[in-house]
Design brief:
alpha+beta, 211 residues, three-stranded antiparallel beta sheet
Length: 211
């Protein structure tokens, strides 16, 4: 009985390995080349552009899994004569997804669109690897330029509680900006008053500053 189990286990393992090699044989070198270009482009976008600008890693898993999922599904459907319209329909479905437990900022959602677009483009593009590399390169260069200081100064914001309520008067706005700059050390350019608490002589405001 033990011998039969060992033989059965060996046959099962050989069948699994055979099926695995058969699957790999069905995947053309073109598939792996496109997958490599897709992953390289996504890595550049997420690691060298997104992370360098925002220093956030919590969305890495989302970006890479969405990109890989879109690429694999689109590549599979593309092998069954999927039209370009259906491909962009799939793009629209995935890009409209929202997380219920945690909100995603507009900027993170934009990067999510980009990784989906790269996966879709890498899977359905009819050109060669050189054309695909150029198309992905255009996306990456454009994103990098828009995120750089060459195109426009990057304005940041913070919400603070401010107690010198007398300075929020419109005629004392310059004094308010100077006081905020001295206290925070930031190049504060403008403020937005959110709420005023006259009982506590404090106000909640958003300060906007450049790097």
């Amino acid at each position: 009985m033990m011998l039969l189990q060992d033989i059965a286990s060996t046959d099962t393992l050989q069948n699994i390995q055979g099926a695995g090699f058969e699957l790999l044989d069905k995947l053309s070198p073109k598939f792996f080349l496109r997958l490599t270009i897709d992953l390289i482009a996504t890595t550049i976008l997420v690691r060298l552009i997104y992370y360098r600008t925002y220093h956030k890693t919590e969305q890495f898993f989302t970006f890479f899994t969405f990109n890989l999922t879109i690429f694999l599904i689109t590549n599979l459907l593309n092998n069954v004569e999927m039209s370009m319209g259906a491909a962009f329909g799939l793009f629209a479905v995935f890009s409209m997804l929202r997380y219920r437990t945690e909100s995603i900022s507009t900027r993170d959602m934009t990067y999510l669109f980009l990784v989906i677009a790269i996966g879709l483009l890498s899977a359905v593009s009819k050109g060669g690897w050189d054309e695909l590399s150029v198309l992905n390169g255009i996306l990456l260069i454009t994103t990098s330029v828009l995120e750089s200081k060459w195109f426009v100064k990057k304005e940041h914001s913070k919400s603070i509680i401010y107690e010198r309520i007398e300075l929020i008067h419109v005629n004392r706005r310059q004094e308010l900006l100077e006081d905020l700059q001295n206290r925070t050390g930031l190049n504060v350019q403008r403020v937005e008053i959110e709420s005023i608490d006259f009982l506590r002589d404090a106000t909640r405001m958003i300060i906007y500053y450049f790097d």
